[in-house]
Amino acid sequence: MSVTILAIESSCDDTSAAIIRDGYALSNLIANQDIHKEYGGVVPELASRAHQVNIVPVTHQAMVKAGVKAEDIDAVAFTRGPGLLGSLLVGTSFAKGFALVRNLPLIEVNHLQAHVMSHFILEKDKENRIPVFPFLCLLVSGGHTRIIVMNSHLDMEVIGNTIDDAAGEAFDKCGKIMGFQYPAGPAIDKLARQGNKHAFSFTKPSVKGLDFSFSGLKTNFLYFLRDRVNDDPDFITNNRTDLCASLQHVIISILVGKLVKASIQTGIKEIGIAGGVSANSGLRDAVSAEAEKRKWNIFLPEFRYTTDNAAMIGIAGYYKYLRGEFSSQDVAPLARL
Ligand code: KG4
Ligand code: ZN
């Protein structure tokens, strides 16, 4: 029996809808919200309003692109959390409404689980490689930095977590100090390729076990720049590529150092990265180099599945559908899960 899922993602500032049929992504549409750029971060009230504007056209386009009509859909999956409450409310309400009108089962999905599940999305006319269990995944996004052991679809254990900022926040906040628009990660990645990663050195925190910390690095970066700019007002402009390369280098070495430690500790060599920061070219290169050295079987997500997208919600929803895990119409979004 074929199963077709409509998936909705609205946890932060991207409105996304996807159609997943039997594990294959038939479509995955994303509407980005440029409005936050000038504010240096996501403004929750503006995000929520933009989701309201985008959600119907994005869903419609996802269905048209997949060649799927409302009557072909078997279930509606949506992000219940974690995320911004006002943003989650839009996606949750829309999913509930769609399911209610068509009398379809509703499937709530944990956004973080979905990022890891993005490695299980299948695509037509492609050689699809998917991880075997146990699978070790570094989840690095704007809101989270975690090391997760996945023992089966949807059975995940967090073995490392950030004690303060997320890796994506380190990129975004340090980028803001340098005058970049939000989100700064992609711009830093691009400029870092032209810079010298050993030009400047920044603090690497010492945190126990498999946990992370990035707030000290941000403060270190801020004070370093404040002192240099005092002496030379053009310091940032004149050293932009080296600053980006050096900052990116320290973030990557913190992340990869803990991933290596986690692999040694668990004995797992089936390894992936996920989340917005997994799009970073330096991180992808560094993980590939470790894989070569340590004989890891690695999974780097397709770029379209790194940042927030509904296909990952749909694949998590598909496995929940197979398990018969449904939600009632009383379900409410949760900012923290
Ligand atoms: O997963 P995501 O779309 O949203 C959350 O769930 O947080 O991740 C967004 C984060 C932002 O912090 C953004 O700066 C970062 O991912 N990001 C990158 C790159 N592309 C996106 N960071 C570094 N390098 C990139 N190429
Ligand atoms: Zn995310």
Structural descriptors:
Nucleotidyltransferase, domain 5, 10 strands, 2 domains, binds 5'-O-[(R)-(carboxyoxy)(hydroxy)phosphoryl]adenosine, 337 residues, globular, alpha/beta, five-stranded mixed beta sheet, 10 helices, binds zinc ion
CATH topology of the largest domain, which one? Nucleotidyltransferase, domain 5
Principal-axes shape call: globular
Number of continuous helical runs: 10
Strand order of the largest sheet: 3-2-1-4-5
The residue ranges in which pLDDT falls below 50 over 5 or more consecutive positions are none
**C-alpha end-to-end distance:** 32 Å
Beta-strand segment tally: 10
Q: Which CATH architecture of the largest domain would you pick? A: 2-Layer Sandwich
Q: What count of structural domains?
A: 2
CATH homology superfamily of the largest domain: ATPase, nucleotide binding domain
The share of residues in helices is 40-55%
User: What structural class do the secondary elements suggest?
Assistant: alpha/beta
**CATH top level class name of the largest domain:** Alpha Beta
Rg over C-alpha atoms, rounded to the nearest angstrom: 20 Å
The SSE order reads EEEHEHEHEEEHHHHHEHEH
Mean pLDDT: 96
Please report which band the strand proportion falls in: under 5%, 5-15%, 15-25%, 25-35%, 35-45% or over 45%: 15-25%
Biggest sheet features = 5 strands, mixed
Cofactors and ligands: 5'-O-[(R)-(carboxyoxy)(hydroxy)phosphoryl]adenosine, zinc ion
What features would you describe in this structure?
This protein is of the alpha/beta class and 337 residues long. The protein folds into two domains: 4-126 and 306-322, 2-Layer Sandwich (Nucleotidyltransferase, domain 5), CATH 3.30.420.40; 135-301, Nucleotidyltransferase, domain 5. The protein has ten helices and ten strands. The strands form two sheets. It has a five-stranded mixed β-sheet, sandwiched between helices. Strands 8-7-6-9-10 form a five-stranded mixed β-sheet, with helices on both faces. It is globular. It starts with a strand and ends in a 14-residue tail after the last helix. The model has no long low-confidence stretch (mean pLDDT 96). Bound molecules: 5'-O-[(R)-(carboxyoxy)(hydroxy)phosphoryl]adenosine and zinc ion. The site of zinc ion has 5 residues, from helix 3.
